[in-house]
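Bit of a strange request maybe. I'm writing a small parser for structure token strings and I need a real example to test against, not something I typed by hand. Could someone generate the tokens for this chain?
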Amino acid sequence: MRTSLLKAGGRHRERAAVRTAEISRKTNETDISVAVALDGTGRYDVQTGIGFLDHMLEQLSRHSLIDMTIRAKGDLHIDFHHTAEDVGIAIGQAISRALGDRRGITRYASLDLAMDETCTRAAVDVSGRPYLIWKVEFSRDKVGEFDTELFREFFHALAHNAGITLHVVNHYGENNHHIAETCFKAVARVLRQAIAIDPRTADSVPSTKGTLTG
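Reply from user aminoacidic:
Good idea to test on real output. This should exercise your parser:
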């Protein structure tokens, strides 16, 4: 749904598009529901059964200003892999659906994000072409009970289902919690910029091809 002009009392007033979506995903391994509002204020309600993942998803919502409600039940008695990956899939699908034809978006964004001794760079192209570059290393196998290798799995699932090109590069850092958190915050901030509507091109798709949906 895009911006439209309504005539009221002889004057035109602009009505902002509502960019929201809900996704439900149920398999033999997970049962997940996600609701997003792209033009929100960063409100979140997250319950995945994985404490550290909840903390990171709260950062993703708060710093992207995307309102998120996430519920996930997974086979945590096996490990956290299926839940982390499938939550990434569902969030990505919800963002893609809410973006619609991607008309008017800024499309590109990048930044370096610092947190104490750590600095991480994220860059995004909301292109309709999914791709992930992940250059992040951890010195431990786990942060709390969460496997650090699953951060890449989450962002791979998010990027491929949202239809975005995403690059995440950790420049340096010592604390593994900080490294993970800067990844989520940096991705959140570039998403916030890239999906924002550019008022100068609000009625056009930012591509010479005329489409960003495939």
